[in-house]
Amino acid sequence: MAFLSDTLARVKPSPTIAVTTKAAELKAAGKDVIGLGAGEPDFDTPQNIKDAAKRAIDQGKTKYTAVDGIPELKKAICAKFLAENGLTYQPNQVSVGTGGKQILYNALMATCNKGDEVIIPAPYWVSYPDMVELAGGTPVPVVATLENNFKITPQQLESAITPKTKWFIFNSPSNPTGAGYTWDELKALTDVLMRHPHVWIMSDDMYEHLVFDDFKFCTPAQVEPGLYDRTLTCNGVSKAYAMTGWRIGYAAGPVALIKAMGTIQSQSTSNPCSVSQYAALEGLTGPQEFLTANKTLFQNRRDLVVSMLNAAPGITCPKPEGAFYVYPDISGCIGKTSAGGAAITNDEAFATALLEETGVAVVFGAAFGLSPNFRVSYATSDEALREACTRIQHFCQGLK
Does residue 200 carry a pLDDT above 90? Predict the structure, then answer.
């Protein structure tokens, strides 16, 4: 009898965490490394949020809470959805989990049976397919190419839907591409979904507040109210509020689904950290001015990185609508040899040689379901980004 579960054969370690870990190890060994793999803001959690957490500790709010969130936080989440997205929810339609990842995982675990299919636009966040596999479902990638600005078409969505389709996972702005769907683009997709009432929608809106230029964020149940009763609208405080380590995500949807997610959570982690919940409450209800300042900072970084990467031979880097990632195409680099003698056979070989020869850590595109590409997280300082992009330029110039 094997000791380890067969489940492990269905899941892979996170490539983004692996890259970040490798970069940290090299840096600890004394190598000059610039890590562009981690998807988290480089600035600190706002002071008012930290102060709220300290007050919660001082007031003894360190006990167990309701499994899926304190009432005050659920009420604040309802107010956020109404004010920012025009969506009306009651507290019993809200679930709070230990990060956005747990929210998505709970929903899939609560609903997926063997043979159920989950449509996932690619490039995708690395965890989506593995979470579907862990829940017993079958991920169905639908590839959005550079030519379509990394956005799937209504025809692609229509073609992917079968009688076995349980969920459509939607992420805009996207990790890893930063691509954002306009209202009209999303309406074209929701029109398709309206014709297939057995398909549920899981909308991952984690990068809602990180959109640039004149792009306007929208979410499926907002664009098509007819989908309200089969949409789980997911969000969290990690990215916009620089609270990645606090681990608070949330979602709103039909009562029966939220209750089922709570059942899963009650037998896994139980409640999210009580102190983090009070911090998230302050994040959602306190001053919001810093969101605009941070957005401007990220937009400037995006423009810097896009400009410098497009100056590198063999690289094409589109300008994304949001998030804090770019997903350059490296077709012009494949088949060449680096100055250090490495054969660039694919994007993983490119990323490996780049790290070993220049000390720049990026995540290779195959991890996100579309090659040949790599992902850069520009959630770091201008100085580090400028140096990293200069090294990437020199690396590409050295390819023969």
Answer: yes
Give the global pTM: 0.95
| 33-88 pLDDT per residue, tens | 999 988 889 989 999 999 999 999 999 999 999 999 999 999 999 999 999 999 99
- Crossing angle for the helix pair 347-358 and 15-28, to the nearest 10 degrees: 20
**Residue 181 burial by Cβ neighbours in a 10 Å radius (0-12, 13-18, 19+):** buried
17 CB contacts (<8 Å, ≥6 apart)? none
Pairing between strand 363-364 and 374-377?
antiparallel
Cα dihedral 122, 7, 138, 167 in deg (nearest 10): -80
- Note if the bond before 313 is cis, omega within 30 degrees: no
Longest dimension (CA), the chain: 64
What confidence score (pLDDT) does residue 237 get? 98
Domains of the chain: 6-44+290-397 (3.90.1150.10), 63-285 (3.40.640.10)
How distant is the alpha carbon of residue 333 from its chain centre?
27
Q: Which amino acid is at 230?
A: R
Contact 99, 247 (CB under 8 A): yes
Q: Is the pLDDT of residue 370 over 80?
A: yes
Q: Which two tokens stand for residue 319?
A: 């300008």
Q: Compute how many other C-beta atoms are within 10 angstroms of the C-beta atom of residue 340.
A: 11
Nearest to 298 by CA among 16, 40, 15: 40
Q: Count of alpha carbons within 13 Å of 137, Cβ hemisphere only?
A: 27
**Contact between residue 85 and residue 233 where contact means Cβ atoms under 8 Å apart:** yes
Distances (CA, A) of 365 to 20, 107, 130, 216, 311: 15, 27, 16, 27, 20
* 108, HSE (Cβ side, Cα atoms, 13 Å): 33
- Of 330, 89, 324, the closest CA to residue 221 belongs to 89
Q: What is the CA radius of gyration of the chain?
A: 21
* Residue whose entry in the numeric block shows the structure tokens 């899926």: 68
